[in-house]
Amino acid sequence: MTADQLQAIITAHLPCEHISLEGDGRHWYATIVSAEFEGKRSIQRHQRVYATLGAKMHTDEVHALSMKTYTPAEWAAVEK
Q1: DSSP state, residue 80
Q2: Please, which residues have CB within 8 angstroms of residue 26's CB and are 6 or more apart in sequence?
Q3: pLDDT range class, residue 80, cuts 50, 70, 90
Q4: What's the CA gap between 33 and 72, in Å, rounded?
Q5: Of 2, 52, 69, 74, which has the fewest Cβ atoms less than 10 A away?
């Protein structure tokens, strides 16, 4: 799987203000900014992203996904 393919899958099911991906095709590191993360704990945010991948996580197309998730306000603070 390519970064573009992975990004397309995530953004098709989760509105993102920003997403960046790095990886080798099976192991990925993502930074994801979405208003849907408002009021959610880190584990809930990660579960929301994993839900966008569905069977891709279970069939090992995406073996590992490490991520940092931010709300737009959190992201604005990080970017300063």
Answers
A1: -
A2: 1, 60, 61, 62, 63, 64
A3: low
A4: 6
A5: 2
**Gap between the Cα atoms of 67 and 80, Å rounded:** 20
CA pair distance 31, 16, nearest whole angstrom: 10
Domain boundaries, the chain: 3-79
Q: Provide CATH code, domain 3-79.
A: 3.30.300.90
Closest CA to 6 of 70, 36, 25, 72: 25
CB burial class (10 A; 0-12, 13-18, 19+) of residue 69? buried
pLDDT of residue 63: 85
DSSP string computed for 30-69? EEEE-GGGTT--HHHHHHHHHHHHTHHHHTTSS-EEEEEE
